[in-house]
Amino acid sequence: MSDGKMAIKNFLVVFALVYIAFVLQTSVFNHFELAGISPNLILVITVAFGYLKGSRAGIVVGFISGLLLDIFIGSYFGMNALILMYIGYLNGLIRLFYFGEDIKFPIVLLSLSDVLYGLTVFAVLFLMRERYDYQFYFKAVIIPEAIYTVIVGMVVYTVTGIAIRWADKPEKRATREIA
C-alpha cells in the first residue's frame, strides 16, 4: 500500500474514532450519568493515541478533539484543546519509557490522565473565580469521573487499539502470475 493510501486510512480512522467518541460523550452518555458524572471518552481516545502512536499523534488527536469540545460545549475557547493536547503529549512521552501490550498500564495512565484533566479544569474554572472548595470537587467530581472513565475506557481503549492496528497494517496486494 502506498504512503498516500496509508495516510488517508489513518486519517479516516482518527476522524471516525474522534467523531464517534464525541457523539457518544455528548449525547448517549448524558443519559447514563451517575450522580451527574459521565465518562470522558475524548480523553480515552487521546490517551490511546498518545500511548499507542506517540507524542505527535497524541498532540494532534488531543488538540482536534479538545477543539471540538470547545466549539460545541466548552466554557472557555481553547481550554479543552490545550489540556488534551498536553495530556496526549505526556502519554506519548511515557510510551518512550514503557510500552507493552498489557492493558493494565494504559488503564493506570488513563486514570492518572483523568485526574490531571480534572485538576486542570478545577484550576482554570474554579480557582480563577476564587472558589477554593478543592476537597469537595476532588471527592464529588474528579474521583468518580476517573472511575467511570476507566470502567468505560477499558472497552473504548481496546476498540481504539484494534482500529489503530488495523489502520497501520499494510494491505496485501493480490498478485497475478503471468503464464
Structural topology:
Layout: H1 3-28, H2 41-53, H3 55-72, H4 79-97, H5 104-125, H6 134-168
Helix pairs in contact: 1-3, 1-6, 2-3, 2-4, 2-5, 2-6, 3-4, 4-5, 5-6
Order of helices and strands: HHHHHH
- What is the count of distinct domains? 1
CATH architecture: Orthogonal Bundle
| CATH topology description | Arp2/3 complex 21 kDa subunit ARPC3
Shape field: globular
Give a short account of the largest sheet: none
Residue-averaged pLDDT, rounded?
A: 85
- Quickly name the level 1 CATH class: Mainly Alpha
The number of E-state strands comes to 0
Number of helices: 6
Helix content: over 70%
Can you characterise this structure?
The protein has 179 residues and is an all-alpha fold. It has one domain: Orthogonal Bundle (Arp2/3 complex 21 kDa subunit ARPC3). Helices cover 74% and strands 0% of the residues. It is built from six helices and no strands. It is globular, with a radius of gyration of 18 Å. The model has no long low-confidence stretch (mean pLDDT 85).
Give me a quick take on this structure.
By secondary structure, this protein is mostly helical.
Defining key terms:
single chain, mainly alpha, Arp2/3 complex 21 kDa subunit ARPC3, 6 helices
